[in-house]
## 1
Amino acid sequence: MSGPEERVPVPRPPEGEGQPRGTPQRALLASFLGWLVPGLGHLYLRRRSQAIAFFLVVAGFSALGFATGGKLYRPDPEKPLSYLASFADLGLGPSYLGGAALGLGQGDPRAVTHEHGNAFLLSAGIMNLLLILDAWDIGSGRKG
């Protein structure tokens, strides 16, 4: 009868070897692509399944926001919190600019679903901003 098998530790390559190293240029490009189209930065970083999931979530929330009468905020000096909401909506990238140009996101406060639409649009923008930061961390090599 033989004794228990000995486990031999597998040597791990030093940090950064065997995987692409992060660079500021790579991080900047991934972040910009992530702002341009949600999930595109992660696709550039070869995170295909994450990219698809992130695109579906952000695009879905944006579509629900527009469909339920949400408002795209614009800075208003008389309403200081509108600056924060505008920043969150800018996280949508070109959908914010395109939606505003197409007349979407005007919002109708009389609609029953207006506040839900606002919440969906703001959530989509904030989620995408967080995904842009995640793409930055991956692209710069701070996150594996």
Note: DSSP finds six helices and no strands in the chain.
## 2
Amino acid sequence: MENNFVEIAIQIAVVAHDGQKRKEQDLPYISHPVSVALLLAKRGFSDITIVAALVHDVLEDTNVAEEKLREELGEEILSIVKSLSENKALPWEDRKKQYIEGIRAGSDAVKAVSLGDKIHNIQSMLAAHKKQGAELWKKFNRGKESQIWFAEEYLSMMKNSWKHPLIEEYEKLVEKMKSLD
């Protein structure tokens, strides 16, 4: 893969997420896909996986069209990002179940970006909880119990469908999340 695909992905993500903030912290949203990409780069994942991590939320959370991703980054990246995008027309529980099944059926790259995303989300949640305490849970539509339900269901699926040390890292984070007030 050409190095400029990383630059193109960064440009797409920066523009697409301009003005967005992270739910649990008042940080620019772009910090999230960059953090996920860095997490995966440090663990030796492929350039394709890193590029997909940089744009993993643009179809789901912005007005970037599939065709733009296809034109700029190719069919393989588009396919990964589509696999990671939730159908927000569904009720929360249904879309989370559908998401889990989509990741189960996904490629190693899909699983890696998804797991990097979930790891960073919980890391952010833990950091925010240190400052906000139990108030943090009010920022999530479904609250603590539903967040834990999803994390445990997702962890179970990952443990049964993929082998990678990141799963153990995620499991430790889930346990920390469960211990929060």
Note: The mean pLDDT is 95.
## 3
Amino acid sequence: MSMLQSLGVALFVSLVVSSGLVVALTPPLRGLLRQICPAGAAENFWTRFTVVMLFVAPMLVALLFGLPNRASLDPDMGQLVKQVISATLFGAFATLAGIGWKLASLSK
């Protein structure tokens, strides 16, 4: 498998995982931000910031740690998808943990 194909798999998996998270989390996030942020502009900013972070951070982790390096043997598709999913989910978990920690400290 070429590096370009591996990159395509990593981007696709990352976009699918991030899209699912954004669809699931945006409505409750908006509700929470309405309670925390009295101004509508702040709510919009933090919602967009969170959405961007839910796309960028998992993709970055997937590209940095999910792709095989050139020195390693070419992985088969199953192994590559497993590595990319693991890296993407770790990036998503770390992002959600950071966002959740910050929102929990604000909503007290």
Note: DSSP finds three helices and no strands in the chain.
